[in-house]
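Narrative summary of target 7.
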Amino acid sequence: MNKSLTTILLLCLPFLDCCHKDVKKDCGCDSKIVATIPDSANLVGQISYKHQLDPNDNYYNNEFWIGYTEPNCGNCIHHMIVYNDEVLSDFQYLKDSTYTTASIKFSGYLKNVCIENFHLADETFQHIILSKAEKQ
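Modeled conformation, tokenized:
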């Protein structure tokens, strides 16, 4: 019996060990830039401040979000969670409102989110480090 138990433990050890390894995802603030939105793109989207209204919704609450829908593709929606909200001084009033949006001309650098969200194939969720943010 001792030999059987030892054999089982030896077989399971690699699987148990993988739970303790530091698995680093390429996401978040210190991750690589996956795409750049240049100033010359002249993108205008809608910015809002996401409040936690549903107690079961824990997806990047209390953050500024920019939504951009591609022209000629109503289903192609890009959701960007802003990292550097200090550049959004013209939009701070959105924190005091629910369901309020404003038009924003923006550019910046996209990074992967760490918490994946199930969504339609034409929707994306990413972080953005803004290099430009202008109220429209």
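DSSP finds one helix and six strands in the chain.
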